[in-house]
Design a protein that fits this description.
Elements lengths: L8 H12 L3 H13 L3 H25 L5 H10 L1 H16 L1 H13 L7 E4 L2 E4 L1 H20 L1 H29 L9 H4 L3 H13 L2 H4 L5 H4 L7 H30 L20 H8 L3 H36 L16 H13 L7 H16 L1 H12 L12 H18 L2 H23 L13 H17 L12 H19 L6 H8 L2
Antiparallel strand pairs: 1-2
Amino acid sequence: MKLDRRFTPISLLMLSINGMIGSAWLFAPLYAAKIAGSAAIIAWLIGGFATALIALTFAELSVLLPVAGGTAQIPQLSHGTLTSFTLSWVAWLSALTMAPIEVQAVLQYASTYFPTLTYLAEGVPLLTHIGLCWATVLMLSLCIINIASFKGLVRFNFVLFIFKVVVIILTIVMLINVNFHPENFLGLAESTFSSNGWKSILAAVASGGIAFAFTGFKHGVELAGEAKKFAIAIPVAIVGSVLCCMVLYIGLQVAFIGALQPSSIQHGWQHLAFVGDVGPFAGIAAGLGLVWLLKLLYVDAAISPLGAGLIYVTSTARILFAMSQIGYVPEALSRLNKQSFPVWAIMTNFAVGMFLFLPLPGWQAMVSFLVSAMVISYAIGPIALLCLRLQLPNEKRHFRLPFANVLCLLAFYFCNLLSYWTGWQTVYKLAIALGIGFIFFIAAYIRGKLKANALGFKAAGWIIPYLLGLTLISYLGAFGGKNVITFGWDFIVIAIFSLIILYLAVLNRSKNIEKEFVAVLNL
C-alpha cells in the first residue's frame, strides 16, 4: 500500500516553513546575541547560506527520488544498507526529539502563569508530574491530528502558518518603531576583524540555535512521496523555506538587538540579562509596555512550538516508515491506516518520545546535540547527488543542480564545519548515540531482515573513517577540545578531510542500482 500524493507545492512549502518556525525564533536571538553580540546578524547569514546550499543538493535528489522517508531511501541506493542505516538512525533520533522539545518549550512558557508545570534544577526548568501529564496530552493531540484527517492536518497547518508569520512580522515592526538603539550595533564591524569575533560568530551558528532554526527544510525530503507536481513542489519547499525563514530570522535578530536597553549589555554580551529574559521577546515587550503584543507573544509561545511539533510528528513518522520498509525495524511500522497514514510509526514515535521528557540538559545544549546529529544526516545530500549522477546517468532529472561538483564539495564542507562548531561536549555524546544505533543494526541482521548481499560493507571505506575522523578532529579542535588544532588551522584540516572523504564516498558507491531504483520508486 502506497502513500497518497496529497501535498500541493504551496501546502508543502507552508509545511516546511511551519516546521522551521518553532521554539527557535523565541530563544535563538537571545542565545546568538549572548555568544556573538551584534555580529549574530552575520551568523544568521552564514547559517542561512550554508543550509540553502545543502538544501539545493536535496532538492535534486528528492525530485529524482520522490519517496517517503528519503533520508533512509537515498543512501540505501547510493551506498547500501550499512550507510543507509547509520544516516537514517541519526536523522530519526534527532528528528524524534523535536516534538518533545517543542512541547517542553510550550510548557516552559506556560509556567510563567502556571508555576506547577515546571521546577528548577541547577537553573534548568524541568517538568513536574503535572507538567508531564500535560506533555502527554499535547503529544497525543499532535499524533491524533496527524492520524485522524489529512484535511485537518492541512487546515490546522494553514492557520498556524498565517498566525505565526503575522506575529513575527508584528514583533519586528513594533520593536523597531517603538524602541531602537543603533548604538547596540557598534561592535558589529569590530567582530569581523578579530579571530575571537569570528570564533564567536561560528559558535553562534552551531550552538546559539541558528543552525537549529533552519532544520525544518528536511520536511520536504521526508514528505516527497506525498507531493503533487513534485518537480516544482519539492525544490520550492526545500529551498524556499530556508530563504523565507532567513529573512524573518534576520529581521527578528535586528529588532531584538536594537530593542535592548544599552545598560543591559554594558558588562558584555555574554552577561546580557533583563527582566523576563526566560521569554526574550515577551520580556522586552513587557519592559516597553506593549501589553497587547506581550499577550500575543505568550499565545504564540504555545502556537509556534506546537505547529513545528505537529510537522515533526508528520515527517519523523515517514523516516521510521522507510526504515521499516528496508527492514531496520519491525515491518508493522510501515502499515498504513484507511487514510494512508503510517499510524503505527506515529504512535511508536509518541511512545519513545515520551521517554525524552526525563531530565535533559537545557534548551541550548539539546539544540547543539540535534544540530550535530542532523548535519551528519545532511552529509548524504551532496555525496548521494554525485554518486547517483554516476550510477543513473540516463535518468531524467526535472531539477538539476548546476556546478554540482563544486557546490557539493562546499555543501559537504559546511556540514562538517557545522558539526565541528557544536563542540566536543556535543560530538562525543553523538558518538555514544551512534554506538547504540549499531546494536539495533546487528539485531536486524541477526533476525535476517537485511539482505546479506546488500549490506554495503564496502561503504565502510568512507562512513567509518568519516565518523571517526569527525570525532577525532572535534577532540583535538578549538571548540571545547584540546586545542591542538587551533582556530584557523581547523578550517584547513576540515577542508582536506572533507575532500578525502567525499572522494572515498564517491569511489565506494554501489554499482548496478537500476533495478533497486525502480523498486524504491514503486514502494
